[in-house]
Amino acid sequence: MKQALQNIKATADSLIAQAESTAQVEELRVRFLGKKGELTAILKQMGKLSPEERPVVGALANEVREAITADIAARTKELEQAALAARLAQEEIDVTLPGKRPVQGKRHPFEQVLGELKEIFLGMGFDVVSGPEVEQDHYNFEMLNMPKSHPARDTQDTFYITENVLLRTQTSPVQIRTMENQKPPIRIICPGRVYRSDAVDATHSPIFHQIEGLVVDKNITFSDLKGTLEMFIKKLYGEGIRVRFRPHHFPYTEPSAEMDMSCFKCGGKGCSLCKGEGWIEILGCGMVHPKVLENCGIDPEVYSGFAFGVGLERIVMMRYGIDDMRLLYENDLRFLKQF
Ligand code: 2NL
Hints:
By secondary structure, the chain is of the alpha+beta class. Helices cover about 40% and strands about 20% of the residues. It is built from 11 helices and 9 strands. It has helices spanning about 1-20, 20-35, 40-45, 55-90, 110-125, 135-140, 170-180, 220-235, 290-295, 310-320, 335; strands at about 125-130, 135, 165, 185-195, 205-215, 245-250, 255-260, 280-290, 305-310. 2-{3-[(4-chloropyridin-2-yl)amino]phenoxy}-N-methylacetamide binds near residues 250, 284 and 288. InterPro entries: aa-tRNA-synth_II, aa-tRNA-synth_II/BPL/LPL, Phe-tRNA-synth_IIc_asu, Phe-tRNA_ligase_II_N, Phe_tRNA_ligase_alpha1_bac, Phenylalanyl-tRNA_Synthase, tRNA-bd_arm. This is Phenylalanine--tRNA ligase alpha subunit.
């Protein structure tokens, strides 16, 4: 029996030393030390031994068990360290390699120009206000002095959701809501998406961007309108730019005007950009119609105001010399990277 125990120890020693994975070591543990293992099998035969031999063989069996257990622990540790070393070698990073630069994004030309525009008006004491793109007929048309018969309300031009709900065709409803809720003095600009039922071409899109402005206070006159808008254009396009006002008609302003700026390309001499005119149309404006003030609960005998509306697309296109509006919506990075 002693011989058998020594044989087990010798076999275990050699097999454990040869084991090449922790799984193999575990198999050997079961084989030698498990409940149905070789060592247990020997111990079961202890009963056959004489009372003198039993403690001697028992002590040897314990010795063998401890030796095998220690062998297993040592081999397991060795294998684990080897596995870790292999993994570390495999996952080694060469910190001297050049890094991969993350792509630096930037703001869309719309956002760049809108940012400048907001800065200009914030500097003149205006607030920036926004409102819903899905509007009621009431705020988009009725309150702006455009009754049911008005041509702009045609379903050919406006996207209706129901008879009384539509996609706003301008940001004026934001200004109407502000006048309803806020006492003058009011100085706001309302930038945002607006919708018209237009086919897409180089200068039209069914979704575009507008910035409207509104000032209401006591003693606001057409001179305030002229001074403010001239200042705005000079800050945006440069001090050398001149402006002129031409009479026009809008249902929500009286009097109404369109503002032109001297052509920034030829300085007013006439070129291909301004089609020989020397002037470029830039925005529509006017003194807020007394009916519109009254609709909003503002007394036109006490208060007056001016308003204007300008298309962001036009300003961005002129600013960067872009001749096709579609380029601004296609999100082609080869185009956008230029700005
Ligand atoms: C354009 C230019 C304009 C306004 C918008 C406005 C807003 C209120 C009251 C009075 Cl709440 N007017 N906005 C005024 C003049 C021109 O837009 O070319 N529109 C088609």
